[in-house]
């Protein structure tokens, strides 16, 4: 069906999910012929999506030529505004999050937790929001893909270039 869509010469193509090598090949070819292609690929982070395409037998030079960016996102629960309470987390929580204990005027990091109410059905949460990370491909990232660098190397390079990780995005929402 993706091949028949290409015959109609669309400007933008949305592929529900890339699950196999054939779909990946067609999506890459569409991108190389000037179509803007959006798709989903289930991975743990943005860098892993690039290495997953390599695992699907897509040539590395095709990936670096056709992909312009990768977004990884997660939906996370939002603390209920009606019943949230401020609390000071313990040192263990702060060290896991790699947070220094100096975020507020009195030197204590303040976080919130939902205690539960009728509005949130006693869960302490109401609604969801997204956290995300974005890798924009440039020459250096493209060269890493061509050399089949690991997702960790790609991620570390993207972080050095200013990428905010999923964790960073989540911490921004919390603080």
Describe this structure in words.
The structure is a single chain. The chain is of the alpha+beta class. It has one domain (41-174): Rossmann fold (3-Layer(aba) Sandwich). Helices cover 39% and strands 22% of the residues. The protein contains eight helices and six strands. The protein has helices at 2-7, 21-32, 46-55, 60-66, 91-96, 139-146, 151-160, 166-174, and strands at residues 12-15, 36-39, 69-79, 84-87, 111-114, 125-136. The strands form three sheets. It has a two-stranded parallel sheet with strand order 1-2. α2 (21-32) packs across α4 (60-66) and α3 (46-55) runs antiparallel to α7. The radius of gyration is 21 Å and the shape is elongated. The model has no long low-confidence stretch (mean pLDDT 91).
Q: What is the structure about, briefly put?
A:
39% of the residues lie in helices and 22% in strands. The protein has helices spanning 2-7, 21-32, 46-55, 60-66, 91-96, 139-146, 151-160, 166-174; strands spanning 12-15, 36-39, 69-79, 84-87, 111-114, 125-136.
Oligomeric assembly: single chain
Q: How many beta strands in the DSSP annotation? A: 6
| Helix and strand sequence | HEHEHHEEHEEHHH
The value of Rg in angstroms is: 21 Å
What is the CATH first-level class name?
Alpha Beta
Overall shape: it is elongated
- Which percent range fits the helix content? 25-40%
Structural class: alpha+beta
At CATH level 3, the topology is Rossmann fold
Major β-sheet strand ordering: 1-2
Mean pLDDT: 91
Specify the CATH architecture: 3-Layer(aba) Sandwich
Number of domains: 1
């Amino acid at each position: 069906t993706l091949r028949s869509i290409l015959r109609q010469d669309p400007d933008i193509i949305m592929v529900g999910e890339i699950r196999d090598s054939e779909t990946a090949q067609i999506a890459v070819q569409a991108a190389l012929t000037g179509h803007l292609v959006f798709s989903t690929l289930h991975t743990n982070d943005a860098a892993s999506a690039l290495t997953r395409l390599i695992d699907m037998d897509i040539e590395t030079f095709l990936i670096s030529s056709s992909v312009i960016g990768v977004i990884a996102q997660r939906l996370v629960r939002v603390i209920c505004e009606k019943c949230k309470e401020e609390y000071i987390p313990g040192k263990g929580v702060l060290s896991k999050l790699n947070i220094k204990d100096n975020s507020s005027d009195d030197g204590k990091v303040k976080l919130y937790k939902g205690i539960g109410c009728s509005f949130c059905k006693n869960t302490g949460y109401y609604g969801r929001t997204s956290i995300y990370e974005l890798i924009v491909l440039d020459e250096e990232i493209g060269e890493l893909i061509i050399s089949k660098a690991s997702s960790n190397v790609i991620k570390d390079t993207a972080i050095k270039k200013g990428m905010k990780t999923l964790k960073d995005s989540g911490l921004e929402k919390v603080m």
